[in-house]
Design a protein that fits this description.
With 215 residues, the protein is mainly alpha-helical. It has helices at 3-19, 28-45, 49-58, 70-84, 88-100, 114-125, 129-142, 166-172, 184-208. Helix 1 packs parallel to helix 3, helix 2 (28-45) runs antiparallel to helix 3 (49-58) and helix 3 crosses helix 5 (88-100). It is globular, with a radius of gyration of 18 Å.
Length: 215
């Protein structure tokens, strides 16, 4: 087994141990999908496959929603990389990607490398479309959020506030992601996923108001 395959296998086992029981939409299967999409984009864009795959596999280990703090999560990733990856340049690139790729209410600076753009795009693609809808309600349920409260005003509510609803999350984040993709290929893939979410919301509101169209 070559070095690339060995470290990927080690990363897979580490992530499965850390996130295997997650029920908020950040489980192993989310990681698996993001890794596969990152590799698809990386091949299209001719990017560094090892950096993209490892960053995709490890990105949610550092997620501040799943750790005591962002710093604690990043330290966990750094310690693992120092133990399993000998190339300091690879470690630096992965840590740079993971530390800045989250949405964070749209406040994070742009990615500075092609590999960072790719992993961020892959993660954002998994947040929209049919999978994105499912993950939104899984996350909301795990946090005790209600589905929809049409009479409430969310304009002064902070991003990630526990008082948000799952439907409001479409407007504070998901419907914005199509226009925030970095690569041309990701933008193409995002179009149909975005359209599906819009169609879903139209149907949701019809059913909410008992105004379904006649068959």
């Amino acid at each position: 087994m070559d070095q690339h395959k060995m470290v990927i296998g080690q990363a897979e086992r580490f992530v499965q141990e850390e996130l295997g029981t997650d029920r908020s939409g950040h489980d192993w299967w989310h990681i698996h999908r993001v890794r596969n999409m990152a590799l698809r984009l990386a091949r299209q864009e001719q990017a560094d496959l090892l950096v993209c795959e490892l960053a995709a596999l490890l990105h949610d280990i550092a997620d501040e929603k799943l750790n005591a703090s962002k710093e604690a999560g990043l330290n966990k990733v750094s310690v693992w990389l120092q133990r399993h990856v000998s190339d300091e340049d690879v470690i630096h690139k992965i840590m740079s990607i993971i530390s800045t790729m989250s949405y964070n209410g749209g406040k994070n600076p742009p990615m500075t490398t092609l590999e960072g753009e790719i992993v961020q795009d892959a993660d954002r693609l998994d947040a929209i479309g049919a999978i994105g809808i499912a993950r939104t309600f899984a996350y909301g349920g795990s946090k005790g959020r209600s589905m929809h409260e049409p009479e409430r005003d969310f304009s002064n509510m902070d991003y990630r506030s526990e008082g948000n609803t799952s439907i409001h999350h479409f407007y504070e984040k998901l419907l914005k992601l199509k226009d925030l993709m970095n690569t041309d290929y990701a933008r193409q893939l995002a179009e149909s996923r975005h359209a599906f979410m819009q169609q879903y919301l139209d149907q949701f509101y019809q059913e909410w108001d008992a105004a379904d169209k006649d068959a």
